[in-house]
UniProtKB/TrEMBL annotation:
Its main location: cytoplasm. One of its GO terms (molecular function) is ATP binding. Keywords: ATP-binding, Cytoplasm, Ligase, Nucleotide-binding, tRNA processing. This is tRNA(Ile)-lysidine synthase. GO terms for cellular component: cytoplasm. The gene is tilS. HAMAP family: tRNA_Ile_lys_synt. PANTHER family: TRNA(ILE)-LYSIDINE SYNTHASE-RELATED.
Length: 443
């Protein structure tokens, strides 16, 4: 291999390789360092110590020595590593926590080192296993698409240059270059689904169907394309049924079931951060048609049907209000935005020419939850009506009716969604202020 005439400087372009110390990433790191030497690039080996196994300290030491040796031989490689701290969130598996932490740490280290490309050493067998695991979980196209060859995420281009290479080719490379690597004992732990698949299922499948790996990888590639098509269709359909942040249900129901499910999956994925389960989607298709107000829980979100619209909001908006203190004195001395964390929102106070309230009334107020039986007068020419009737007349959705209500003494002064009670409006021509309630979860 030809070596570059001048060794790379600190300013040279940098390629990062995610290095576990295992066989595959050791091979990829070595191959990348040799190619980089010829091209005058720098290579950064990025390692994450998960803090889970006693062997992990020795793996860092192994990588440190290996990179130092290779560097001594003229290869432009340096090691950067970090140790994860923290622990899995409630309900999160150790594997999921380690994966999440690992990718976040790799992205952070790559960005700090100004390496915009990070190589991962997954190969064809890893891809075939991923496809099988997803199929065995009953995943849809997104899961069956398995691992992308490349993807931009967290400001980094992640690439898997060996995704179509058989594991055996990596084995041969490692032997021919006499590379040493570490063995992760957890790769033999049969409590992990991937290990059961690798040790028991894949050998049997390959014995019965020689092209198992190639066929599964081809299926993953087709699933990737199918997923892209479904996404494009969902965008087109969504444009026809979206109204602001809500969906128009009558328009949605015009679509055949499969397209309806596709739109819902896409829309909920965008709003909730992850796709809904298939069972929930099937339930929604059955239950969404209807006129009466209804709601469904989707992970940490609440899906609400009201007057032909479907909205999706973080569930905390409801619980914040339920947990709020039932009564809180407040005093407003000037225009501004007053955040009331216990109530899950802010009260905005701004000057207006009419239909406002005098500042003197706002200096001695009280926030209370709705308790029932309150009366509200919309304008000087109307009569006081129950809040329920006023809400209905104004089309305020049921989940925005929980308060907080603002009282001045025994007089109901302000109701979010309805405004200031006309009986407390300041006389025309005097200084006055409008009120608005802005929920923390709005927008
Ligand atoms: N602790 C780690 N630090 C940095 N990168 C890692 C780490 N663990 C995994 N990777 C990256 O993710 C890829 C896939 O991980 P996986 O757990 O399947 O591999 P491995 O068994 O740890 O090791 P290898 O793929 O190197 O044989 C690795 O090839 C490597 O590029």
């Amino acid at each position: 291999m030809a070596a570059s005439a001048t060794p790379p400087s600190a300013d040279s372009l940098c390629v990062a390789v995610a290095a576990s110390g295992g066989r595959d990433s050791t091979a990829l790191l070595y191959a990348t360092a040799r190619a980089a030497q010829a091209l005058g690039l720098r290579v950064l080996a990025l390692h994450v110590h998960h803090g889970l196994l006693p062997e992990a300290d020795a793996w860092v030491e192994h990588l440190r020595r290996q990179c130092a040796d290779w560097s001594g031989q003229g290869l432009p490689v340096t090691l950067r590593w970090c140790r994860l701290d923290g622990s899995p969130k409630r309900g999160e598996s150790i594997e999921a926590w380690a994966r999440r932490g690992r990718y976040a740490a790799l992205a952070r280290m790559a960005c700090e080192e100004e390496a915009s490309l990070v190589l991962l050493a997954h190969h064809r067998r890893d891809q075939a296993e991923t496809f099988m695991l997803q199929a065995l979980r009953g995943s849809g196209m997104a899961g069956l698409a398995a691992m992308p060859k490349q993807i931009v995420r967290d400001g980094v281009l992640w690439a898997r240059p060996w995704l179509q290479q058989p594991s055996e080719a990596v084995e041969v490379y490692v032997h021919s270059h006499g590379l040493s690597f570490v063995q992760d004992p957890s790769n033999d732990d049969l409590s992990f689904a991937r290990n059961r698949l690798r040790h028991h299922v894949m050998p049997a499948l390959t014995a019965a169907f020689a092209h198992t790996e190639q066929a599964l990888c081809a299926a993953a590639r087709q699933a990737q394309q199918a997923r892209e098509c479904l996404q494009a269709l969902a965008e087109l359909d969504l444009a026809k049924v979206e109204e602001g942040s809500a969906l128009r249900l009558p328009a949605l129901e015009m679509f055949p079931v499969a397209r309806r499910v596709n739109v819902l999956r896409h829309w909920l994925g965008q709003r909730c951060g992850r796709g809904p389960s298939e069972s929930l989607l099937q339930r929604l298709v059955q239950e969404l048609p209807g006129d009466s107000p209804a709601q469904w829980t989707v992970g940490g979100h609440v899906l609400r049907r009201y007057r032909g619209l479907l909205r999706c909001e973080p569930a905390c908006s409801a619980s914040i209000l339920l947990n709020a203190s039932r009564q809180q004195a407040i005093s407003v001395a000037e225009a501004g935005c007053y955040h009331l964390s216990g109530w899950g929102g802010s009260l905005r106070v701004k000057p207006v020419a009419e239909a406002g309230v005098a500042l003197s009334r706002l200096q001695d107020c009280c926030l209370r939850e709705r308790s029932g039986g309150e009366q509200f007068q919309r304008s000087p020419h109307s009569i006081p009506r129950s809040l329920k009737k006023q809400y209905q007349a104004e089309g305020v959705p049921s989940w925005q009716r929980g308060g907080p209500l603002l009282w001045h003494g025994d007089a109901l002064l302000f109701v979010p969604g309805l405004g200031i009670d006309a009986r407390l409006w300041a006389p025309p021509g005097t200084p006055q202020f409008a009120l608005e309630w802005v929920s923390d979860t709005a927008g």
